[in-house]
C-alpha cells in the first residue's frame, strides 16, 4: 500500500478511531457555528456603527429635536442603537416635563435613567453570542488535544501487535491524532480573533453611547431653564 495515499486527510479521518471521529465531528460543527456568528456579529456591529454615525450627524447638525424624535420613533431599526437611546430619553423627558410638580433635576434624572436602561439593552444585544466565540476559542484546542492524545495512545498501543515498529505502522495513527489538533486550532483561532475585535468595537460604541447620554442630558437641562 502506498504510504502517501494512506496519509491523505480524508483517508486518515475515514480510518480514525470512533473517539477521534467524534472529536473531529464536534470540532467541525463548532467551527461552522462560530463562523456563522462571526459573520452575523460582524454585520450587526458594522450596521450599528454606521447607524450611530448617521444619527450623530443628524443630531449635531442642529435639527429640531421633536422632528428627530418622530423620525426615530417611526423607524426604530434604521435609527440604530443611538437613535433608540435618544428616542427613549426624549420620550421620558416630554412625559415628565408635563408634570408641574416635578423639579427640573427629577425630569433630567428620569430621562437619563430611561436612556441608561435602553443603553444597557443595546449593549446586551451587541454582546449576545460573544461568550460563545470566547468559549470556542478557549475550549477547542483542548478538545483537539484530547483527540490527539487518544490517537497517539492508539498508535502506540498498536505497536504491541507487531514484531518490528516501522514508520508505516506509527505514522497513520500519529497523523490522525495531529488532524484533531489542527481542526481544534482551525476552530479556535478565528473565534479568538473575532471575539477580541468585536469586544473592542463594542467598547468603542459603548463609549460613544455614554458620551451622547451625558451631552444630551446637558441639552435637556438647558431647555428647562
UniProtKB/TrEMBL annotation:
It is found in: Cell inner membrane; Cell membrane. Residues 82-210 form the MotA/TolQ/ExbB proton channel domain. The chain crosses the membrane at residues 12-39, 130-153, 173-195. Its main location: membrane. It comes from the Bacteria. It is a multi-pass membrane protein. Keywords: Cell cycle, Cell division, Cell inner membrane, Cell membrane, Membrane, Transmembrane, Transmembrane helix. InterPro entries: ExbB/TolQ_transport (IPR050790), MotA_ExbB_proton_chnl (IPR002898), Tol-Pal_TolQ (IPR014163). The Tol-Pal system is composed of five core proteins: the inner membrane proteins TolA, TolQ and TolR, the periplasmic protein TolB and the outer membrane protein Pal. They form a network linking the inner and outer membranes and the peptidoglycan layer. Belongs to the ExbB/TolQ family. HAMAP family: TolQ. Part of the Tol-Pal system, which plays a role in outer membrane invagination during cell division and is important for maintaining outer membrane integrity. NCBIfam families: tolQ (TIGR02796). This is Tol-Pal system protein TolQ. It comes from Uliginosibacterium silvisoli. The lineage of its organism: Bacteria, Pseudomonadati, Pseudomonadota, Betaproteobacteria, Rhodocyclales.
Amino acid at each position: 500500500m502506498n504510504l502517501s495515499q494512506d496519509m491523505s486527510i480524508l483517508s486518515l479521518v475515514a480510518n480514525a478511531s470512533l473517539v477521534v471521529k467524534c472529536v473531529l465531528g464536534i470540532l467541525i460543527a463548532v467551527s461552522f457555528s462560530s463562523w456563522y456568528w462571526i459573520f452575523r456579529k460582524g454585520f450587526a456591529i458594522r450596521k450599528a456603527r454606521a447607524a450611530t454615525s448617521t444619527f450623530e450627524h443628524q443630531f449635531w447638525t442642529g435639527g429640531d429635536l421633536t422632528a428627530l424624535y418622530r423620525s426615530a420613533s417611526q423607524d426604530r431599526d434604521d435609527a440604530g442603537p443611538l437613535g433608540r437611546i435618544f428616542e427613549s430619553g426624549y420620550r421620558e423627558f416630554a412625559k415628565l416635563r408635563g408634570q408641574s410638580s416635578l423639579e427640573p433635576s427629577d425630569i433630567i434624572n428620569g430621562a437619563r435613567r430611561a436612556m441608561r436602561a435602553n443603553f444597557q439593552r443595546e449593549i446586551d444585544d451587541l454582546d449576545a453570542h460573544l461568550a460563545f466565540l470566547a468559549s470556542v476559542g478557549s475550549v477547542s484546542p483542548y478538545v483537539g488535544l484530547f483527540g490527539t492524545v487518544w490517537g497517539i495512545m492508539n498508535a502506540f498501543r498498536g505497536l504491541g501487535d507487531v514484531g518490528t515498529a516501522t514508520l508505516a505502522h506509527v505514522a497513520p495513527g500519529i497523523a490522525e491524532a495531529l488532524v484533531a489538533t489542527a481542526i481544534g486550532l482551525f476552530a479556535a483561532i478565528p473565534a479568538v480573533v473575532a471575539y477580541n475585535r468585536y469586544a473592542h468595537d463594542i467598547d468603542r460604541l459603548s463609549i460613544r453611547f455614554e458620551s451622547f447620554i451625558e451631552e444630551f442630558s446637558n441639552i435637556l437641562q438647558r431647555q428647562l431653564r
